[in-house]
Specification:
This protein is an alpha+beta fold. The chain contains six helices and four strands.
């Protein structure tokens, strides 16, 4: 058996996670078409964020609320390889995350499917991030303003407490 460092193991799992997401999409698309693959993908991203959010909340021993959401969600973004900054918004009742590098959009570009990135990522990000918000309390909501995948310089993600 190969002896791997913690960093190598994490990289192996990270690359596998990204690869399987793209591979299953392409295989479903080949068999049933793009729209069906996107519909199934959206259903997956209604569930996976629940698993991720609950796991990070448990690992960090955190409860609900905006602060816990920001801690867990930015951890997830960092683990996925996003470049981003955060700042308060809504008079302290929200946070704005400015994403300047999205690994999912970059993967679409590398696979020469950049023209589909906006359609895929716009839908999936809205679904995924709304689920993240719902996992941290009923009063938390997600909204986005601008997307890299549709030509914006950055994605602006906001989590607000209503």
């Amino acid at each position: 058996m190969i002896k791997l460092s913690d960093k190598q193991m994490a990289e192996f799992l990270h690359r596998s996670y990204h690869a399987v997401d793209g591979l299953w999409f392409v295989k479903v698309e080949e068999k049933y078409g793009f729209d069906a693959a996107l519909e199934v993908d959206n259903e997956v991203w209604k569930v996976l964020p629940k698993i991720q959010a609950r796991m990070l909340k448990s690992m960090a021993r955190m409860g609900d609320g905006l602060e816990a959401l920001v801690e867990c969600f930015t951890t997830k973004l960092a683990l996925d390889g996003f470049d981003f900054t955060t700042e308060p918004c809504e008079g302290g009742k929200g946070v704005r995350i400015s994403v300047t590098r999205c690994p999912w959009h970059e993967a679409m570009r590398r696979s020469r499917r950049e023209e589909l990135s906006g359609k895929v990522n716009s839908l999936i990000c809205g679904t995924e991030y709304s689920v993240w918000a719902s996992e941290f309390g009923k009063g938390l909501h997600f909204r986005k303003n601008g997307e890299i995948c549709t030509g914006s310089e950055r994605c602006l993600l906001e989590f607000v407490l209503s």
